Amino acid sequence: MEKLVSLAKRRGFIFQSSEIYGGINGFWDYGPLGVELRNNIKNFWWNHMVRLRDNVIGIDTSIICHPKTWVASGHVDCFSDPMVDCKTCKGRFRADHLGSLPCGQKPSLTVEQCAQQKKGPGELTEVRQFNLMFETYIGALRDESAKAYLRPETCQSIFTQFKNVQIVSRQKVPFGIAQIGKSFRNEITPRNFIFRSREFEQMEMEFFTKPDEAEAQKWYEYWVEERFQWFFKLGIKPDKLRKREHAKDELAHYAKGCVDVEYEFPFGFSELEGIANRSNYDLTQHMKASGKDLSYFDDATKEKYVPAVIESSLGVDRTLLTVLVDAYDEDVADGEERIVMRFSPKIAPFKAAIFPLSRKLAEPATKLEHDLRQEFNTDFDDVGSIGKRYRRHDEVGTPFCITYDFDSENDHQVTIRHRDSMQQERVSIDKVKDYLREKLK
Ligand code: GAP
Predict the structure, then answer these.
(1) pTM for this one?
(2) How far is the CA of 255 from the CAs of 69, 251, 269, 282, 305, in angstroms?
(3) Cα–Cα distances in Å, from 369 out to 298, 309, 379, 409?
(4) Per-residue pLDDT tens for 190-210?
(5) What is the residue with the minimal CA distance to atom 21 of ligand 1?
(6) Which residues contact 246 (CB under 8 A, 6 or more apart)?
(7) Number of neighbours of residue 39 by Cβ within 10 angstroms
(8) How much distance in Å is there from the Cα of 195 to the middle of ligand 1?
(9) How, if at all, do strands 328-333 and 336-341 pair?
């Protein structure tokens, strides 16, 4: 993780937020390459979940919504984590993570070991519940009536807008509504780089089905498999992924089933995405709290019902961390050690880098780069030897490096070098676009 965090900063993927002021725990900024990678991941999800399907549509809702939303969803009363304070270091820790969190004064020990070794269990305060929602105030008043929350998940406004979206899209159950957006949780102990942060982005899809148990179960199984397969399409190594089914006592009282997709991070297998059968609890809760009818009338069967929901919920930042961890590799190239990010070409920040062999060839090489950038995110690099330029682009995962040399002037060909195999081939300049299109398909 240390190597990865260092590379992420050095090459402009991720910086600590407000670094010049000493940083702010649990918040991160994405640099020039980070934002490209992030957008590519989000587009890849959006295409797969929305654009390529007939029965899923997208929305984009506000971060702050009516505070009653969070009463109805149960977040005001129940969205909390258990917390303890250490009486010596004054650190505040999640009570259910004490066995893995480092002690504030002696990071070689966990909080649990430290408490036991030093002063015994009395070292830590009693467990208290801490609500994770960030609060704010709407308008000029700062009293309870003006209190609102930054959303801790994006799905609730999919539920509250269910009827509007269903009517305008003329979708019939079963169908889904998806959105990508920021969520905020005042995590007690944000950690593991961008794995658990206080501001993050989610990609969520709520699929509405008949509340009939067999029907909901059928779609639940469909989405578990569909979502698991999506990570392979993203290029993640299959042997690093697994599904973990929640035990009955882990499930919310209304949930009929939940499977986490987990990835083997350097700190162990951890949750990437949750797929859950939430019954029709969410719509029912919002109907009760708002007094509005969110039920669905089925024209075919003439039945009226409150649909059940199968949810797929994934973090953008957690997916990006997975992609970084999974792509990181070290090997030897031309007798030198190199770091290479083996991103799937589909999501690599740069698709190609164009190198003029000599600055004298800058003009035609620039012309080629400007032509390619109409379609692909490219980089132009004329600094240092070709070997150094390869190393720089290996480190940011550019799948193809294209050298324009003196022969290119006569044979109208360039050399394309592949990041993973390091093999090179000559390709006609007028065929480079087709070549990249084919490779990035
Ligand atoms: N609507 C259901 C829901 O929000 P969740 O398991 O709390 O379920 C879903 O969150 C996903 O959102 C997680 O699997 C993870 O990818 C991401 N996520 C949750 N909390 C996060 C945090 N503090 N930092 C980064 N990602 C987070």
Answers:
(1) 0.95
(2) 19, 6, 23, 10, 18
(3) 54, 47, 8, 15
(4) 999 999 999 999 999 999 999
(5) 196
(6) 255, 257, 258, 259, 260
(7) 15
(8) 10
(9) antiparallel
